[in-house]
From TrEMBL:
Domain UPF0033: 18-85
Name under which the protein is recorded: Preprotein translocase subunit TatB
TM annotation in the entry: none
Gene3D superfamilies: TusA-like domain
Source organism, top-level taxon: Bacteria
Family per similarity comment: Belongs to the sulfur carrier protein TusA family.
Amino acid sequence: MAGANIRFDKQADGGYLLDVKGYGCPHVQIYTEKALKKLASGEELSVVFDNPSSGESISFMCMLDGHSLLERKDEGGTFAWRIRKA
């Protein structure tokens, strides 16, 4: 979507945040996969997105690659998922 900005930042707790609100499939999964490649094994990524169908893609990717989905929150149409890299 026009005007959407991707945000990828290291957080104070040592984890990482990927904000891809405003993007649809397959972009959310692609950006999540790219972000996870930058992390070391065991590090955590919080992904914030607002496209409900992207959750299925992220779940499938995590299952295939062995990443752990630690938390899934739905906050009124905005999703916040926490993933631990395999």
